[in-house]
Structures are given as C-alpha cells and as structure tokens.
Amino acid sequence: PRIFADSADIRDIEPLYRAGIINGVTTNPTLLKKAGATSWQQAKTMLTDILTLLAPNPVSLELTELTQDAMLVQAQELAALGSNAVIKVPIGGYRTADAGADPFTGLKVIRALWEQGIHTNATLVFNTTQAFWAANAGASCVSPFLGRVADYLAKHDDKLGPPGNSLYQGDGETRFHNTEYVACGGPRQDSGSRLVQEIVTVFAHYDIRSEVLAASIRNPAQLTEMLLAGADILTVPAAILAGVADHPLTDLGMQAFCADAAVFSG
Ligand code: E4P
C-alpha cells in the first residue's frame, strides 16, 4: 500500500517526503488550524506549498461548503491550487437547517467533479454502503475513518448512543440504530478495522477501481490492522509514523551486537 501523511504542517511533511516514507498527503481544516492557519488566505498558501512539494503525488484538500453549488465552486478553487489536488467530499446530505434536505448532495458533487476530470476523495465514510455509492459516483478513493469508530465505541461502551443514534441489544447482537456510524449486523467491538475489511472485500468482489484510504489511524496497532485488511492507502499522522520503526528489542539487540563487535580487532 501507499503511505500518506495525515497533516497540513509542511515541517512534518517535508522530511517524511524527502526520506521516501510518504508519497501523498491528506489535509483537513482541523489539521490546517493545528499547523497555524488563521485565515483562508493563509490556509491556501500552506496548501499550495504542500501541493508544490508533493507534485505529482496526491494531496487531499477538504471542502467546507455544504450546498451543492457552493461545494462545486469551492472544489474548483481548491483544484486550481495544484494539478495534484484531490478534493475531499463528505458523502451524504448534511444535517444542517438549510442544507440537510438533499441526502444526495455529496454523491452529486462527486459525480459532477468526476465529469470535470477532478479527482475526489469521499471522506468521513462510516459504513460500507457510503463507500460503495461514492465509488459508484466516481470517487478516486474512499476514506473510512476507523479511529473515530473506535473512539465512538470506547466512549459509548455502556451501549447507550447519543440521542437519535442509540444502540440496542437484540437477537444476541449489538446494533446501531443509525447506520451512519458503522454498518449493522453483529457485535462490532472491532468495527473500525471491520469497516475497512468490508469495504476492501466489496470493492474486490465487484472489481471497483476506487482505492480504499484508511483514515483516522490512532496508533501503530491500527496501522498493522489496516495492512492486514488490505487497504490501498494508509494516511497516518507524522507522530505515529515517527514511532513505527522503533522497538526496544531492536535497540537492545543492536547494543549487544555492537558490544560483541567491539572485541574484534583489525
Ligand atoms: C483523513 O483524510 C483525515 O484527515 C483524518 O484521517 C481524520 O482523522 P481524525 O479522526 O484523527 O481527525
């Protein structure tokens, strides 16, 4: 699989890219804010720098508009920042007072951008059908957020979901009422990795060409799970990437080898 940096901070991205550790980047407004952006103008400059550094490798840039027309305008603005820009489109309609009416907003935007030759990354994917429909609409890749599923399950371990999205126990199974969080069907304590496994399996089954980009990875164990699941791309925070090559037994082993080598002469 390919490894991307999940970051908007060029100080983290550049050394990883130059070392050949990553060949793509995913950004979002939270990561831009964390990297120091305080205005859209500044954010666009930061994104342009990342696009230039990474070209021709892909850099995902997130839409923040919520209506179809506004999303398409913003997508064109972001796509104009670099030919390697991939536009992150949240699939679905958005549960806001003025934009929640059309459940197909994200799919329509993905389709329209596909027709314009603009690559898209269907983001904030939390079940397999979202991934399937996004791929069908023409998304270049789909991003299941496995870490957020794990966060959600850890937080709601008492089996009580937030209002309107509660869990129930029935037929020996734990299910989410609201399938927007995770796919239903069976106890899902491992839902984050299971979600990615399902999507990889369904895409392989139907020979779907969209890539599966495992997002929201929180630790090296999840990274390994994603490799086992067969994700095409893993986007990983720089801090996690920095730790993946470390193991105390590697250090101890090398100390012993160096100590033994020190007795050799000549
Ligand atoms: C992916 O494209 C997203 O930027 C990212 O993985 C979100 O992860 P988070 O849950 O850590 O915010």
Automatic annotation (TrEMBL):
It comes from the Bacteria. Keywords: Schiff base. Pfam families: TAL_FSA. The lineage of its organism: Bacteria, Pseudomonadati, Pseudomonadota, Gammaproteobacteria, Immundisolibacterales. This is Transaldolase. One of its GO terms (biological process) is carbohydrate metabolic process. InterPro entries: Aldolase_TIM (IPR013785), TAL/FSA (IPR001585), Transaldolase_AS (IPR018225). It comes from Immundisolibacter cernigliae.
